[in-house]
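pinned: reference chain
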Amino acid sequence: MRDVVFTRRSGWIPSVIHEAGELKLMLAAGADANHDPREFTFPISEAHLAVIREDLARHLLLWSAVLPLCEAAGTEGQLDEAAAVALLDPVLLAPPADVDALFRRIEWDRIRLVAHGADIRLLERGEVCEAMRAATERADEKRAQEYHADRRRAARGMVLGPLDAAILRYTGQYLHGATIPRRNPDAVDSALLPQVMRVMATAEQACAGMRINLDPRRGNRATDKRDWERMTAAVDAAVRRAYPQLVDDAVRTVSFLMCSEAAARAKSAPPEDDDNAAGDSAASTCKTALTFTDDKGGEKRWLCDGARGASAEFWEFVAERSAGDNEVFTIEDEEMGEGIQLHFYADSIARITTVRQGEDGSDPEYQVEYSLVDGLGGYRHLVNAFVHGGCAALDQHGPWMSDAAEFERARRR
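pinned: its structure tokens
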């Protein structure tokens, strides 16, 4: 039979229960194999209960001291009950100076104390009892998260200035650098907001006219890594030049914001048709029928009788079929006996032309030539050139090598 003897309004602060004829402190901490909080208990005395009931600061200090023992128990281990009991008198009954000395020797969870109002300056100086004079039952988890984030930065040797912190709050990345940045002007102190907006204006000017395109080689929603890196470099350089005092985290969050917004625009925009972009003169020489294939048996037929051009249809086929084990795609013009094969894994392309048709059961003879490709933009340019002019239109986009071994050496260089 378990009876609750004393509990506070905050559900996570340890409670005192009466169980099996004795008083026990009960707390939830750590996690089991299912990631649910584990429950621990250990015996206390009436004298300990009296302090817990009357002194919130000592109650919280005990919780902070016991939590590492609970974490050490892992998902299935037992609480070191002797070690927990050994903390009771030194934390609850000892003079403040002795408590401070104890906390300089043991492991303790300072994040919990910060969440419940501890004075951070005093806490860092080791004056834990004095730091807990302003303790509150209600936890401020955001305060604790910000303190934890600041400690992580300090471990990397990074200290935020007021403008650094304001920029990180504006983008929503003060707590977690992996969070997708957003514009949150309400999160910034009004006195600092104009400075933050000037930094944003500098970044926007640096990347004006730049785009981050979708990369169909990596699926329907992926963006071009080179475009992202190019925009990041442009924004970083401009912001560092204008505001050399900003720390790396602040500069990084600004470029991350600009790139994220550019990527979102690309994902929401209608698919770009390279054929339309080429102009009417190019469209007039467009091939009339093409076959798209991949390395997994996928095939799609395109005919010049619809609203969409061959390039747009091909890249849609790539986005739908491309995968880590499917990185070779082919465009073939059966009527002309020519085609191109794109090797995404090797940043290369092969153009294939029929030299002699097969006769009397003999195999056709083909000429295969290879060339290196500079990123997604290079692939788009080559595909568009082939669609409008065949293999002959690729002559100017070389050099082309017919010796596979020579090409492989060039690729490795």
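why pinned: DSSP finds 17 helices and ten strands in the chain. The chain has a mean pLDDT of 91.
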